[in-house]
Amino acid sequence: MVAERRNQHEGGESTLTVVLALMVNLGIAVMKAVAGAITGSAALLAEAAHSVADTFTEGLLLTALRRSARPADRRHPFGYGKERYFWSLMAAVSIFASGAVFAFVEGVRTLAGEGQEQVRPLVGYVVLALAFALELVSWTQAVRQVRREARAEKRGVPHYLRLSDDPTVKTVLLEDSAALVGLLLAFAGLGLHDLTGSAVWDGVASLAIGVLLVVVAYTLGRTNKGLLIGRQADPRLVRRVYDWLTRQREVEAVVDLLTMVTGTDRVLLCARVDFDDSLGVAELERTCVRLATALRDEFAELDEIFLEPVPRADPHLRARVLARYGEITRRQP
Fold this sequence. Notes:
This protein is mainly α. The protein has two domains: 2-229, Cation efflux protein transmembrane domain (Alpha-lytic protease prodomain-like, Up-down Bundle); 235-330, Cation efflux protein, cytoplasmic domain (Alpha-Beta Plaits, 2-Layer Sandwich), CATH 3.30.70.1350. The chain has helices spanning 2-39, 42-68, 83-111, 121-152, 157-163, 167-196, 200-229, 235-246, 281-298, 315-325, and strands at residues 251-263, 266-275, 302-309.
């Protein structure tokens, strides 16, 4: 119950972070598009596409949060947790397709001399300043949540973001960070165009925004790819589970320990254990049930647990374990 309440709290905060980002980006997208049409700035139009992409992304993230929360059923016995990773991957594709490609097209058109002549740059400056202030609100909420969760896990923010199995907040944080940098690039392009009279600066700023979005899309895509394939659980959790099992009086040795993230705060555990040979069949069955129950009580992240009694001296099993982990398996899983 503690884990369930914690997941509900974190899910609610993630939803708040995503909804706030969606509302902010929708308003900013409209402002940038109007300002881009008025001023003729390629960088502003690229930033409008950036905000449109971010708005689509938040919509996909809300879908991810809703669909991944569904309980396990007959067709999906391990639940729907990985839907969060699929829709987050689609969000990364959206950033690339809707934002980066448009920014590149606008930059190339401007550098080729096909862009619209820039007029009324003051409108662009005002809109960029307002957009920066609004993006800062969304970014602050994302940073606040990330810092709180990193502190709860006793990790630094970069380490937490690298290992986190919740892509939604990471996506919003990277999006908003990229948005703030993109706004500064657009401001620089608009200002240099205004000062020099050369549209080259506007085109260069648009291309730079495109590169920025490609980097964000690639980073998020790589993260979600690893989670979709089936990533190992947090190494600290693996080590704690391993140590816990080895301390049990019925356990002679932990031969192999397999984990896979099946959703945010959901871990599948398969432990191959060499039990005390003096245990009878009925006692071994009761021991497996007791250990599985105790593991769930001790480690809230563990969702499904499989304990397999095996002889540690079996050469075929040892060969499989060594092929996966190498000689380090003599000391740890």
